[in-house]
Amino acid sequence: MAGKDISVSRLLKLAHQFNCFYLSGLQSGNSWPFIVAGRQVGLIRPDVLSKLSKYPEVFNFQTNCVTLNPAFRDYAERSAKIEEVLKECRAQGTFITLKGWRDECYEVRAGFSSEPLFKMDRSATCLFGICNYGVDINGYVMDPEKGLCIWLQRRSPTKQTWPGRWDNMVGGGLSVGYGVLETAHKEAEEEASIPPELMTKLRSGGSVSFFFESERGLFPNTEFVFDLELPINFIPKNNDGEVEKFELLPAKEALVRVLSTEFKTTSCPVVLDFLIRHGIITPDNEPHFPELVELLHVPLQSLYRVRSCTENGDVCTT
Amino acid sequence: MAGKDISVSRLLKLAHQFNCFYLSGLQSGNSWPFIVAGRQVGLIRPDVLSKLSKYPEVFNFQTNCVTLNPAFRDYAERSAKIEEVLKECRAQGTFITLKGWRDECYEVRAGFSSEPLFKMDRSATCLFGICNYGVDINGYVMDPEKGLCIWLQRRSPTKQTWPGRWDNMVGGGLSVGYGVLETAHKEAEEEASIPPELMTKLRSGGSVSFFFESERGLFPNTEFVFDLELPINFIPKNNDGEVEKFELLPAKEALVRVLSTEFKTTSCPVVLDFLIRHGIITPDNEPHFPELVELLHVPLQSLYRVRSCTENGDVCTT
Question: What letter would DSSP give residue A263?
Answer without folding.
Answer: B
